[in-house]
């Protein structure tokens, strides 16, 4: 029985020769949570945005960060503390340029030999309402026949916003700021706040061929804007950003 047991042991066991080391199998694993950064942050920098954890990391192992935004272009956006695993952003980011970064985190010894990882670190840039809605043209011309019934759609205004389409920052609204002249009625037209459709609200009897009517249309995102101070003006306030466009109708 002893001989058969020895044969079984030799068949199922790796024999380590002189000068050889047993294979190292680490039971540790990197904990790399996803991180977020709001775009357009102001100094001071760097700012800590999260932490990578290596349970029971010995003092002779260090954290390393690689990939676009770290050691590749755009270089130096993100750094990691080699001892604590704190991840920091070094300057202001622009979501419209790059909306997320995918980096690799690992631990190494002082000679650069990888001990743990690499593990993927995803950093997402959060959108701010930092882009004005823009009309392609500063002046639009529409026509409506005199005597047209109330509710006639004259035209549709469309603006564009470069903010994140998955957030309210890119949800546009429209309103009429001013009508000139304000006769025969100060409210001859209505604009659908969401679709941008301009329709007549005046009685057909008052929809005369003269005079030419000019409307000031605003597109905005966020809260309702205040009236502009001048023709085709642009305004920016903390809760919204918007841009106006004139629309001329020949009746």
Automatic annotation (TrEMBL):
Instruction: Tell me yes or no: is Repeat among this UniProt entry's keywords.
Output: yes
Highest taxon of the lineage: Eukaryota
The protein's matches in InterPro entries, at most eight in alphabetical order, are given as: Cadherin, Cadherin-like_dom, Cadherin-like_sf, Cadherin_CS
Record's Pfam families? Answer: Cadherin
Q: Recall the GO molecular function terms of this protein's record.
A: beta-catenin binding; cadherin binding; calcium ion binding
Chief subcellular location equals membrane
Which spans of this chain does the record mark as coiled coil?
A: none
Give any Gene Ontology cellular component.
adherens junction
Q: Which residues form the Cadherin domain?
A: 63-135, 136-221
Per UniProt, subcellular location reads as:
Cell membrane
- PROSITE patterns attached here? CADHERIN_1, CADHERIN_2
Q: Mind listing the GO biological process terms from this record?
A: adherens junction organization; calcium-dependent cell-cell adhesion via plasma membrane cell adhesion molecules; cell migration involved in gastrulation; cell morphogenesis; cell-cell adhesion mediated by cadherin; cell-cell junction assembly; ectoderm development; establishment of cell polarity
Keyword list (alphabetical) reads: Calcium, Cell adhesion, Cell membrane, Cleavage on pair of basic residues, Glycoprotein, Membrane, Metal-binding, Repeat
Write the protein's name: Cadherin domain-containing protein
User: What is the species listed in this Swiss-Prot or TrEMBL entry?
Assistant: Fundulus heteroclitus
């Amino acid at each position: 029985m002893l001989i058969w047991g020895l044969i079984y042991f030799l068949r199922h066991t790796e024999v380590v020769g002189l000068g050889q080391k047993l294979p190292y199998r680490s039971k540790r694993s990197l904990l790399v949570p996803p991180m977020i950064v709001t775009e357009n942050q102001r100094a001071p920098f760097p700012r800590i945005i999260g932490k990578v954890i290596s349970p029971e990391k010995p003092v002779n192992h260090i954290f390393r960060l690689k990939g676009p935004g770290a050691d590749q272009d755009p270089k130096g956006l993100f750094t990691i503390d080699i001892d604590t695993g704190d991840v920091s952003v070094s300057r202001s980011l622009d979501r419209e340029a790059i909306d997320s970064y995918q980096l690799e985190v690992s631990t190494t010894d002082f000679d650069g030999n990888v001990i743990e990882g690499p593990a993927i670190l995803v950093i997402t840039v959060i959108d701010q309402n930092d882009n004005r809605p823009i009309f392609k043209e500063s002046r639009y011309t529409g026509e409506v026949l005199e005597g047209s019934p109330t509710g006639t759609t004259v035209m549709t205004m469309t603006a564009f916003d470069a903010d994140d389409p998955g957030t309210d920052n890119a949800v546009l609204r429209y309103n009429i700021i001013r009508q000139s002249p304000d006769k025969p009625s100060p409210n001859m037209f209505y604009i659908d706040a969401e679709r941008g459709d301009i329709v007549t609200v005046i009685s057909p009897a008052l929809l005369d061929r003269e005079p030419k009517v000019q409307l000031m249309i605003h597109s905005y995102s966020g809260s309702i804007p205040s009236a502009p101070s001048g023709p085709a003006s642009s305004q920016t306030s903390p809760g919204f950003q918007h841009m106006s466009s004139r629309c001329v109708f020949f009746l």
